[in-house]
Amino acid sequence: MSLLRCARIAPLRRTIPSSLRLSARRGFALQGRRLAAADIDAHDPHHEESFEEFTARYEKEFESVQDVFELQRNLNNAFAYDLVHLPSVIIAALRAARRVNDYPTAVRVFEGIKAKVENKGQYDEYLRELEGIRSELGVNLKESMFPEGQA
C-alpha cells in the first residue's frame, strides 16, 4: 500500500516547476528570518520570559487546575524556581486547592513560602498580604495547628 501511495505522490512533485520550488524556498527562508527577529515563540526553550509573563503563566495554570495531581504538579514546578511568587500566584494556587477540595495542600503552600523566603520578616509580610484569602478559605497555618512546644 505504501508503494502505491508513493507512486501517486511522486508525479505531483514533478509537476511543480523548479523555478517555483526555488522561489518558494527563498521566500520561506526570508520570511523565517523576519519572523525569528520579530515574533518570539513562547514555547521556545531558549526564550526568556519576563517576570510578568512568568507570573501570568502560573496564574493561568492554577486557574485551569481540575484535580489534585495538576495542583501538586504546578506547585512543585512553581516552587522549584529560586524565587517566591507574587501573592497573586499564591492566591490562584490557594483557590485551586479549594476548588479541588485539598486542604492539606493549601496548608503546605504556606510551608513552601516559609521555606523560600530569606527571613522571618518576609514570611510575616506574606502572611499579612494573604490574610484575607486565608480567612476567606479557612486555611490555618501549620504553626497555629501544631505549636513548636507540642511536638
Give a short overview.
The chain is mostly helical and 151 residues long.
For the biggest sheet, the summary is: none
SSE pattern, N- to C-terminal: HHHHHHHHH
- Count of DSSP H/I helices: 9
Helix content range of the residues, please? Answer: over 70%
What would you call the shape? globular
First-last Cα distance: 72 Å
Instruction: Give the C-alpha Rg.
Output: 26 Å
Low-confidence stretches: 9-14, 19-38
What do you see in this structure?
This protein has 151 residues and is mainly α. The chain is 72% helix and 0% strand. Helix 3 packs parallel to helix 5 and helix 5 runs antiparallel to helix 6. The protein is globular. It starts with a helix and ends in a 6-residue tail after the last helix.
Keywords:
mainly alpha; 151 residues
Set out the fold topology.
Blueprint: H1 2-15, H2 18-38, H3 51-63, H4 68-79, H5 87-99, H6 103-116, H7 120-129, H8 131-137, H9 142-145
Helix pairs in contact: 3-5, 5-6
